[in-house]
Amino acid sequence: MSKRLSRVALIALILLLFIAVFFLMRYVQNLLYSDVRINLTEVVTQNKDVVTSKLKVEVNNLDNVSKQLTDRLSQEGSADGNALKSAFLSYIRENPDPGLFIADGAGNAYFTDGSSVSVAGRKYFRLALEGVQNISDKTISRITGEEMFAISVPMYFKNQIIGTIQKQYTPEEMYNLCSLSLFSDQGSMYIINSQGYILIGSEQEEYNKESDNYFRSLYQKGNQEASRKLEQGIKNEQAGFMETTEDGERIFSAYTPVEEIHDWYLISSIPTSAVSPNANMVVKMFYVILCVVVGVLGVIMFVFLAYKNRQQANLRRIAFVDTVTGGNTFNKFTVDLQAALAANPEHPGYLMTFDVDNFKYVNNYYGFDVGDKILRHIYDKMAEQMKPGESLARISGDHFIVLLQEAAPERLNGMLKASMENDQGVMLYYTAGVYEIADPDESISLMVDKASAAAQVNKGMMRKEIAFYSVQFDEQMIESEQLKRSVEQALTNDEIVPFFQPKVNINTREIVGAEVLARWITREGRLRSPAEFIPLCEKTGLITELDMIIFEKTLAFLRMNLDEKVPCVPISINFSRLHLLDDGFFDKITRRIHQYNIPPELIEIELTESAIFDNHEIISEFTNQLHQYGLQISMDDFGSGYSSLNMLKDIPIDVLKIDRAFLEETSDSKKQRVILSAIAHMAKRLDIRVVVEGVETIENVNLMKEFGCYIAQGYYFAKPMDEESFGKIYKEGIL
């Protein structure tokens, strides 16, 4: 009994000693940290003054240039745009400085090489035009396309602001102006704006304004309170001090607004390891010694338990942890589902299965490593949205299953949408089906099959809703399968034929081109609507075979007319986005063109705007190949909802087909006219031809003439027609 008491007393004494030393060391550390806080606050104030002084010199120098230009204008007696530009170029010849440029009151900027752009929308220009000397955030030069900073000051003439003068700085130049050594380079310095975006930092010379946010960085590293405190302090333009942790290390930071610079804030940070390394070492040694003393007493007891727990954890991980996602396996999901059904048989919930459309192409194109990362991303994003009592697992490959307590369509669409975008830049589309569990005693495999059956209804469709299982699904699947077999038979029996709709010059009524469309004429001579079979072909993948059949018939039509010495004009051919997943698609096209000996300039490859938008990188490479071969590229449905002017910059489009919606009379007709005018003007400047679709009335034609669009396609001139009918007017060349 006494031995037991002694052992307890010894353990208690060790624990008391541990606690005493711990609090003593904490007290010493707090004294050290208090001194650091005072010193760091002084340092950041000094740094601010140094940075402000350097930048003020640059602003003053630019202001002196502004005054010299004003003097020249005073001598000329004029301050209009031409006089301003002339005075600036004269000054540059005497004082060469490629970084300078001026802007008149309308925002027209003139550079030292004589070039000009508009900077009317730039914030630094607007502030200077209001009389505020300022330094911009990091922005993109409209001349070089490279990142830059700009110092901007107003120019006065007869006490009126007539324009601004700016000097450009590269990120490296601005970094050199603002960078300071802090605690023998062990500390770090950042300059941020009021939104928290890093403009300049000592740890690297370049930052991405869209992603490098100091507030967000603190928050993501577990310093949520510090992030909120800093954001509030900057919002109130107050100086302050904060403590954070990064990778387990404590960091002291002081921050202050740079009053002389619009919307700039200086942050200086120092790790505790750089403050007093010797004192920290002593503290750590005491901690180590004490931990060793206490640890030895518990080692023997814990070794066996740790070994046993490790073995159990390994077995559990093998059975229940997915090696790809790090989440649940289907075995673990089955166990959780059984437990959930037993605990709540009256409200068993819903099963949702989903998979990534054409995921095999992701693996083939990007590699399995990227594919695995995407699967982990999907799992993590879905897991973030799980509620208590819900469960998630990867079944196999790209197939996932979810147990849900609530299955409102809005929630399900939101869950899937959250994981569509990823760091690998691959746009994902899902096929999902939901089964409401009606009988908790039903076999789990049957439940999964029903959810999967619902998903199969929408398989392969690009725009789809999440499908909920019902008994009608079996009937619909039978009908769909019958239609699929009919389409396959139609392809075999040569019932899919090309129809042609002319593109017409509205001034001369000359045929300048045509679009070929697929039509289904049955053996009984009945014309079936494209709406009956095109969506099914897209869904089942038959569209790729159908497209190639229409393509080959079009080539044959062109070959026939070339042999008859008919002056041929280009024909545009639609291709589904599914072709873009085929690495051999380009070779298939060119091989057939070569086989029929068709001049490439007579073929126009037509892709929808949404296909280009969703497959930007693939399309960019593909269109370059087409152009090198001599083919033309047309963007269909431009302005239908996905427009991105960047696409016109990055992808060499030859023809824009403007969506018919711009011709329709609506409450926003005035805005539509402005947009149509802008598109026509932009296309002309970019040397892109414009074709207006859906032209059905003389009013549509007059609207086209008003905005300089002269190629029309629509029922006003001609409906899509069979090859024989089109062949006659194709030879005549005029309607």
From TrEMBL:
In which compartments does the protein localize? Cell membrane
Identify the main location: membrane
Which is one GO molecular function term here?
A: cyclic-guanylate-specific phosphodiesterase activity
Q: Which organism is it from?
A: Eubacterium limosum
EAL domain segment(s): 480-734
Q: What is this protein called?
A: Phytochrome-like protein cph2
> GGDEF domain spans which residues?
347-471
Classification from the root reads:
Bacteria, Bacillati, Bacillota, Clostridia, Eubacteriales
SMART domains associated with the record: EAL, GGDEF
Database matches in CDD domains: EAL, GGDEF
Q: Can you tell me where the transmembrane regions are?
A: 7-28, 285-307
Q: Record's Gene Ontology CC terms? A: plasma membrane
Q: Which SUPFAM superfamilies match?
A: EAL domain-like, Nucleotide cyclase
Q: Which PROSITE patterns does the entry mention? A: EAL (PS50883), GGDEF (PS50887)
Extract the InterPro entries matched here.
Answer: Cyclic-di-GMP_PDE-like, dCache_1, EAL_dom, EAL_sf, GGDEF_dom, Nucleotide_cyclase, Rev_trsase/Diguanyl_cyclase
Record-linked Pfam families: dCache_1, EAL, GGDEF
Keywords tagged on the record: Cell membrane, Membrane, Transmembrane, Transmembrane helix
Membrane topology (UniProt): Multi-pass membrane protein
Keyword Membrane (UniProt)? yes
